[in-house]
Recover the amino acids of this structure.
């Protein structure tokens, strides 16, 4: 593959280099695999949203009509199949950015530096900057288009089951939250930039592959950790006897006791025999109620968009760093040329 | 020539020093994590739950998650370590050498291709077996140490693999599959990707048919019944004799586990033979 690029470059030095076409030729297997994955994922998601959801919803309708009676027949297989396929598709979609990171680190920049074809291209009328711009722009378009289509179809499949299938995931479920919206697209773009950067910085395909995947995992963990804090949470204070407001219905941010004067303290351990006993002990410590800071369903889009913006900012940062590393690399190339001349 | 042969294992070690270091560090880290969880975390969780027992109102019901979730993650990592082995074998061990031509260079320097591949496979196989054995023994101890805090079952996909020699068998199989993929494709990344995909598929298929690898027991009754403690229920339904359940009792763990280990090792032998045959054709 790389030999094809090299020979094309040597054969027509006078012609304007067609970086985009070479890139497509060089990474044709990757493009074919990516297209196949997207088509397969889209087909499975359509299957999930249609027949599988309908069958599972019918199973749950039968089950709920049983009203707990013994040995009432219902389509258990359909319910289990829906759950399995949904979970597999959600996890696969969540794993796609890591695949992008591995490919970008190894094949996009790392291998070309290791084999020297990058340096060869830079002597054939392609400026290093243009070389990298093409290498980032075209894959970014393919990655963005593919993942956008898949998260759109995932969201469609998820909402088809919402309220009809009793085991359907909540909007705030750990994996479902991300695979339902643009954060997965943004993570895939950040992974692409991270891969391009590690490939340029390390200059070797396989180490860059490993480091790029680890870096993407770090980015993902950081985004996960920051996500609840990127939008102001709703805080509810409820009476000591009532318990927490709206538990298990959104993204939790903080829980504890509200004390006199408006402060918050973490919930102390209480081993009293009754709820009232604990309430009395808490009241003696100055507590006036429970406070619960959380994100209700209406915060879905603000959280999605702020987290995506954070990930895109990281992608921009990685891209900037990649260009800086490239300048250092091509600077040494120019210096080397000057020395031999 | 004899000098080259003596130096061959050393060359392999020198070349794949980083991989060996990463593997050793991973085994050490997982071992340390298991030790910490069972010697430190479990104690504090149990103490907290004991205080709870004397109160009607207890908000510590999720305290056990601090122990059970990491333990489950360790099981997953031990079980799927074979994917990393497949990536290494397809990519760095064989694929890169064939792509860059260093393999052919070695074959002209007094190392026959067969000896080259034997050394390339024997040393990683040793490392996979040693590291895998440590991981399995540690995981068996950690998994059994505080059963009251865990909610998983011996039939859970990754627990089933991580609790015995099947982990090592999958690792060796991944080594062979990665090697064959690299010899067939002769390109680093293509071999890496297809080796990982192939091993994932092998594991998926065997997990799917795991329950059929040893005859299951069936219980049929007109009256409601419960299966023995620890049983893995495979199927249930109703026939002419009443309700029936097909299940594996806990005592079927070892037969099931060893039969699957045998299947994976047989596949490993086949793939390794194929790899040597392909090598002979390539080198000729």
């Amino acid at each position: 593959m790389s030999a094809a690029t090299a020979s094309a470059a040597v054969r027509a030095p006078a012609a304007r280099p067609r970086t985009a076409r070479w890139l497509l030729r060089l990474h044709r297997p990757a493009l074919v695999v990516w297209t196949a994955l997207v088509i397969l994922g889209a087909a499975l998601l359509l299957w999930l949203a249609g027949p599988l959801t309908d069958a599972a919803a019918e199973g749950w309708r039968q089950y709920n009509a049983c009203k707990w009676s013994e040995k009432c027949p219902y389509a258990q297989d359909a319910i289990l199949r829906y759950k399995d396929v949904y979970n597999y598709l959600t996890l696969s979609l969540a794993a796609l950015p890591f695949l992008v990171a591995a490919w970008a680190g190894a094949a996009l920049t790392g291998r070309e530096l290791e084999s020297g074809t990058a340096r060869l291209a830079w002597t054939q009328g392609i400026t290093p900057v243009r070389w990298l711009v093409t290498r980032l722009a075209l894959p970014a378009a393919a990655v963005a288009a593919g993942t956008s289509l898949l998260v759109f179809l995932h969201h469609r499949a998820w909402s088809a089951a919402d309220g009809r299938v009793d085991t359907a995931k909540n909007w705030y479920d750990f994996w479902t939250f991300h695979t339902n919206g643009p954060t997965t697209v943004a993570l895939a773009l950040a992974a692409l930039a991270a891969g391009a950067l590690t490939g340029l910085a390390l200059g070797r395909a396989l180490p860059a592959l490993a480091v790029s995947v680890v870096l993407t995992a770090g980015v993902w963990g950081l985004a996960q950790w920051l996500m609840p804090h990127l939008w102001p949470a709703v805080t509810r204070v409820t009476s000591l006897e009532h318990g927490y407001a709206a538990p298990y219905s959104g993204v939790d941010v903080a829980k504890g006791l509200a004390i006199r004067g408006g402060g918050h303290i973490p919930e102390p351990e209480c081993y009293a025999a009754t709820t009232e006993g604990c309430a009395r002990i808490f009241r003696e410590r100055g507590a006036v109620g429970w406070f619960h800071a959380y994100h209700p369903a209406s915060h879905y889009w603000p959280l999605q968009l702020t987290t995506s913006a954070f990930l895109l900012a990281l992608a921009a940062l990685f891209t900037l760093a990649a260009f800086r590393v490239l300048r250092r690399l091509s600077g040494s190339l120019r210096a080397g040329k000057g020395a031999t001349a | 020539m004899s000098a080259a042969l003596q130096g061959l294992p050393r060359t392999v070690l020198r070349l794949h020093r980083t991989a060996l270091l990463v593997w050793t560090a991973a085994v050490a880290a997982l071992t340390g994590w298991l030790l910490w969880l069972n010697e430190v975390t479990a104690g504090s969780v149990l103490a907290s739950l004991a205080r709870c027992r004397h109160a009607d109102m207890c908000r510590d019901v999720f305290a056990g998650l601090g122990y059970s979730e990491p333990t489950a993650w360790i099981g997953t990592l031990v079980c799927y370590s074979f994917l990393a082995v497949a990536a290494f074998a397809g990519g760095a061990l064989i694929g890169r050498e064939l792509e860059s031509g260093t393999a052919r260079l070695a074959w002209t320097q007094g190392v026959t291709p067969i000896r080259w591949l034997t050394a390339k496979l024997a040393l990683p196989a040793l490392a996979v077996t040693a590291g895998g054995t440590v991981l399995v023994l540690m995981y068996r101890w950690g998994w059994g140490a505080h059963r009251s805090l865990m909610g998983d079952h011996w039939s859970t996909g990754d627990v089933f693999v991580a609790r015995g020699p099947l982990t090592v068998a999958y690792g060796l199989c991944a080594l062979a599959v990665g090697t064959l993929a690299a010899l067939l494709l002769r390109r680093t990344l293509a071999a890496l990707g297809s080796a990982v995909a192939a091993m994932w598929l092998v594991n998926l298929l065997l997990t799917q048919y795991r329950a059929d690898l040893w005859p299951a027991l069936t219980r049929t009754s007109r009256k409601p019944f419960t299966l023995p403690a620890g049983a893995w229920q495979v199927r249930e339904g109703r026939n002419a004799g009443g309700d029936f359940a097909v299940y594996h009792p806990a005592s079927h763990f070892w037969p099931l586990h060893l039969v699957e280990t045998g299947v994976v090792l047989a596949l490993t032998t086949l793939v390794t033979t194929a790899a040597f045959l392909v090598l002979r054709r390539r080198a000729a």
Remarks:
- Residues 2-211+252-283 of chain B form one domain.
